[in-house]
Amino acid sequence: MNKLERFEQTHDTTLYFGLQVANFAIELNDDQIEEVIAEWSKQDKPNEVLAKLCSIPVTRADLRTLMGYNWLNDEIVNFYMQLLVSRSKAIPVLPTVYAFSTFFFLKLQRSGHAGVCKWTKDVDIFSYDLLLIPIHLSNHWVLTVAENIRSYPVLKIQVRSALSFRPYVTFLFQKHMPSFRIRVAYEILHEKLL
């Protein structure tokens, strides 16, 4: 019996922590899983900062939102977006990425362009290959990914193919969430994507 199974037995959380890792997911080893579970299990110091990236702190309480099927908070989403940006900068062959804050879309929705134009006044968003826009829709997070149009030939009529889903899009289903959340927690603790 591995450490995750022992944790599930003692905490009656099979539904929350049962690993159903899809073939595209990077599996964590027992030590990595134990590290995440140990942080989740600590009840003291909920405001202790466990990771910080681009002035976005993640506290123990924030990290616990990744436990089970809890609601994710803005700090977790913003931090993870910055992990994606950091990886893009560190590996030049990857597409360049700009991530908007979780508050961007709400501000855009409420105040229009005038409300958010200062957010990007020092950033040439057209110089990036991908723009990530996290959106909170009452009880769901969605991620809008805008691909820079420069990657499509201007004079070709390829609107249908340009707007269709890319063949490399991977879908995560609810059954993948427990293992995905554990991996995200581990990546946040180490401030690096696997």
From TrEMBL:
A GO MF label: cysteine-type peptidase activity
Residue ranges of domain Ubiquitin-like protease family profile in the record: 56-194
Coiled coil: none
Keyword field contains Nucleotide-binding: no
Gene Ontology BP terms: protein desumoylation; proteolysis
Keyword Hydrolase found: yes
Keywords assigned: Hydrolase, Protease, Thiol protease
Source domain of life: Eukaryota
Homology family: Belongs to the peptidase C48 family.
Identification of the protein by name: Sentrin
Organism: Trichuris trichiura
